[in-house]
Design goal:
Blueprint lengths: L9 E6 L5 H10 L1 E6 L4 E3 L4 E3 L2 H8 L4 E2 L8 H8 L4 E5 L7 H4 L6 E5 L11 H7 L4 E8 L9 E8 L6 H24 L32 H10 L7 E4 L2 E11 L3 H6 L5 E4 L4 E4 L4 E9 L4 E3 H6 L11
Helix pairs in contact: 1-6, 5-6, 5-7
Length: about 325
């Protein structure tokens, strides 16, 4: 591996999931990273074996020290961070709220890469809610952190469009790369004092609350467009789902389908109005959605037409 560039400033990195890894790589290019702070290893899989988070694996590959605190509010962690004598801490999807003594420990405080165009979509799941709510644009905001929920002053924003069929998972991959660009371009400028931080207009704020499994449940009384946005927004987690003949069905891919007025007027929302070997169409609050791919309980993902051929669904069935 080629040696890292000469450091321009000293930093600590806070981040846990795969989304944060490109930003860690970007910080490695522009800074002397004293440590990577991430969530503790967690049991995963059928064997519940302890699995390190993606940022830990990447940090070890880069030869960086890793710290995985279980508590942040005892004062000990803030004292450790002060001892690192860093210029700034970069926080990317760390997954825990940082107390004031931690936020204040670096010389220039903590800077966050937030996956929305603030003040829109403050909170834990901005990617998902941007898609679910049918936003046509989102982006990344480089911001100073304070004690509020994503309320700190903004340094720079990097907008990007959301396409009509893009899933939250696909959007996350793109925003991770954009976030890395924000780190390379913006963080050195911040440390050099080249930014005039901009206060957020809280009057325009919206929230993106933490996701629950139940958030994936499909409401077919909503418009077909809303249902489509919901399905793509809930990918990959918690996943959009409904029930059919008493069993849970994950809905993986949909498309909005115009129904004849006679059909949409006759069928109650959630009714299967058409099913054959090519597609399954469900009535919504207006028009319908074609279910393209589904996954039945304990089974692999299949085309919805195969669901029909296997006699798991037919016209007239009600979902949910």
């Amino acid at each position: 591996m080629a040696p890292a560039p000469s450091p321009r400033f000293r930093a600590v990195f806070f981040g846990t999931p795969q989304f944060a890894v490109p930003c860690l790589d970007a910080l490695f290019e522009v800074a002397d990273i004293r440590a990577v702070v991430c969530q503790p290893d967690k049991p995963q899989g059928r064997g519940l074996s302890l699995t390190p988070p993606p940022t830990k694996l990447r940090a070890l590959t880069l030869g960086l020290d890793v710290v995985q605190p279980t508590k942040l509010r005892t004062g000990e962690f803030a004292a450790w961070l002060r001892d690192q004598a860093v210029d700034v801490a970069l926080v990317v999807a760390y997954g825990r709220i940082l107390p004031k003594d931690v936020l204040d420990a670096p010389r220039l405080g903590c800077v966050n890469v937030h996956a929305s165009l603030l003040p829109k979509l403050r909170g834990a799941a901005p990617l998902t809610w941007a898609v679910v709510r049918g936003e046509s644009e989102t982006g990344v905001t480089l911001m100073q952190m304070d004690e509020g929920m994503d309320t700190g002053a903004m340094l720079q924003q990097f907008p990007t469009p959301i396409t009509v069929d893009e899933t939250a998972g696909e959007l996350a991959e793109r925003l991770a790369v954009i976030g890395a660009t924000a780190v390379r371009e913006g963080l050195p400028r911040y440390v050099a004092g080249a930014f005039s931080p901009m206060a957020q207009d809280s009057a325009g704020a919206t929230m993106a609350p933490m996701l629950k499994k139940e958030d994936g449940r499909i409401d077919f009384t909503r418009s077909a467009k809303d249902v489509h946005n919901h399905v793509r927004g809930m990918q990959p987690w918690p996943g959009a789902f409904t029930t059919a003949r008493g069993k849970t069905v994950k809905v993986l891919t949909t498309r909005v389908t115009e129904l004849p007025h006679s059909s949409s007027g006759r069928a109650e929302p959630s009714t299967v109005v058409f099913a054959d070997k090519s597609r399954v169409v469900v009535a919504c609050g207006d028009h319908g959605v074609t279910l393209a791919r589904v996954q039945l309980e304990g089974k692999k993902a299949i085309a919805a037409g195969d669901w029909f051929l296997g006699r798991g669904i037919s016209e007239g069935d009600r979902l949910g």
